[in-house]
Design a protein that fits this description.
366 residues, mainly alpha, 18 helices
């Protein structure tokens, strides 16, 4: 029998050869070399081996596990489970063992709850880092194939119990994007908009700043991808949540226009009018208001064009402003007002006064 020190060195060399063969996709040869490395240490008295030898043994088992799963035959899967049971007694790093179990459970559609139980333990205990978040989201995707609902629970738990306490907003964004994606692409979840609204409120209350453009775009894409008018309107309102405050006036305008189109698609003129009033009451951004002008003009609604244009001009104080051409606005509003007065549809002193404001505005601009 080799001396313990020599056996450790030999096992380390055999392990490196086996790992190299695995990298070259020579799986059969890799298993042979890894088995030789393991046997070299197994023949030694454990009392004579150093701590490093124990670490090498765990690495050998870990590598052997992954090579075995490249051919997921019944014999290899059985041996992989044997390796997990051995590692449970050989290492104090329970997360490593949990991750190996997830690899095996992901192959079994009837082990969904086992996957969930392990993932919940991982998200509550694992050290948070970019690499570990990537690993967790990978396994959430694996779980989602069998149960989108359980995957959603894992994501919400991860966000609310761990990530919101961190200062890294990018981690929150990445996980929230995955959550939104899961909700919009999984029919099994049913209506999750109420739960998402609560989640957005929680994130907004605890997050140090508004989310970046990636999360904002994900919420907007979700609102555009739904064909059902009611659901699309709900998702537009979610995308208008103050959590996505960095979306900018242009994107907000798109979402509000989408809401108006949804209302028109349902022939719900009351909701369409309510949305317009909400825009007038809550928004003073001229870009958004002018977007409403363009939408009303596209629909051929002259009265709405007049009202929206008047709101734009009132907001700007009938003065030139960045991004808008005052002469164009004045000409368009004046032409619309004259056409409406000449049509005989309205005989309102208000429109005459608006027309006077247009001429006064043109005079002051010149």
């Amino acid at each position: 029998m080799l001396e313990a020190a020599v056996a450790e060195q030999l096992a380390d060399v055999l392990f490196e050869i086996g790992r190299d063969q695995a990298r070259k996709q020579l799986d059969k040869s890799a298993l042979q070399w890894l088995d030789r490395a393991y046997d070299t240490l197994a023949r030694q008295d454990p009392e004579e081996l150093t701590f490093d030898a124990t670490e090498v043994r765990c690495c050998i088992l870990h590598s052997t596990f992954h090579v075995l799963l490249k051919d997921r035959c019944e014999e290899n899967v059985s041996r992989a489970w044997d390796i997990i049971h051995e590692l449970e007694g050989a290492t104090k790093n329970v997360v490593v063992v949990w991750l190996l179990k997830l690899e095996l459970h992901s192959m079994d559609q009837f082990a969904t709850h086992d996957q969930y139980d392990i993932l919940i333990q991982i998200v509550r205990q694992i050290h948070i880092s970019d690499a570990n978040i990537k690993t967790i989201l990978h396994h959430v995707h694996q779980l989602r194939r069998h149960s989108p609902r359980l995957a959603h629970t894992v994501l919400v738990t991860f966000l609310t119990e761990r990530l919101l306490a961190m200062e890294e907003i990018a981690w929150v964004e990445k996980t929230l994007i995955t959550t939104v994606w899961n909700c919009t692409t999984s029919q099994d979840l049913g209506d999750t908009t109420g739960a998402l609204k609560e989640l957005f409120d929680t994130v907004a209350a605890k997050s140090p700043s508004a989310l970046g453009t990636s999360a904002t775009h994900a919420a907007q894409i979700a609102s555009y991808s739904l064909g059902d008018y009611d659901q699309a309107d709900i998702w537009c309102r979610l995308a208008l949540h103050n959590l996505f405050g960095s979306s900018g006036a242009s994107n907000i305008a798109k979402l509000q226009r989408k809401r108006i189109l949804c209302a028109l698609g349902k022939s719900d003129l009351v909701q369409c009018r309510d949305i317009r009033y909400q825009i007038q009451e809550s928004m003073t951004d001229t870009t958004l208001l002018y977007a409403c002008v363009l939408e009303a003009q596209k629909m051929g609604d002259r009265l709405q064009v007049i009202r929206a244009l008047s709101k734009v001009l009132e907001t700007t104080g009938y003065k030139a402003t960045s991004g808008l051409c005052l002469p164009t606005l004045l000409r368009l509003n004046g032409r619309m007002l004259i056409q409406e007065l000449e049509s005989g549809h309205v005989q309102d002193q208000h429109y005459v006064e608006e027309l006077c404001k247009v001429f006064e505005g043109g005079t002051s601009y010149g």
